[in-house]
Automatic annotation (TrEMBL):
Homology family: Belongs to the gmhB family.
Protein name: D,D-heptose 1,7-bisphosphate phosphatase
Keyword Transferase set for record: no
Top enzyme class: hydrolase
Cofactor(s) needed by this chain: Mg(2+)
GO molecular function terms listed in the Swiss-Prot or TrEMBL record: metal ion binding; phosphatase activity
TM segment ranges: none
Pfam families assigned: PNK3P
Amino acid sequence: MKTSAALFLDLDHTLIRPKSGETFPKDADDWEFMPKMLNALWYDIHHTFRPIVIVTNQGGVTAGFHTIEEIEAKLAKVKAALVTHLRGNFDYKYPTEVYHYCAYNYDFMRKPMPGMAYQAAIDLNLDLSKSTMIGDMDSDEQFAKAVGMGFRHVDRYLGNVSYTAPLNVREG
């Protein structure tokens, strides 16, 4: 079976941001897509990557700010809105997965540990060496490096307003 490259996305401050303007969202409805993100994703998923894989640490659960149910509700809403937009506007037919959020501070699934990437690779038959992670934190970059995938900081990714070329698939 042929493996595919995926576009891995961090959630908070990469794919979405709080609508309230706060650093952390107040509830499951306090989010909006990052400006320019949907157009950037459209370009890259049509030229290079399939599928999109969302990976996120959610330490607010351990800290008592949110419950697992609130995080799961937020993730379901984000995924539904993303899939609706991509399929409705761009005829996107590939999986969009919310892959293992990690609510605990010390766990193999918590970035920068590679657990979420390995699980996604197994479940979706991905070639991590040809995949790219987009994120805003050092832990996102370390996560990508731990599994041999490329990394792009979200500010650099969204700052590329021309979109004249997709992200390069890493040759492996």
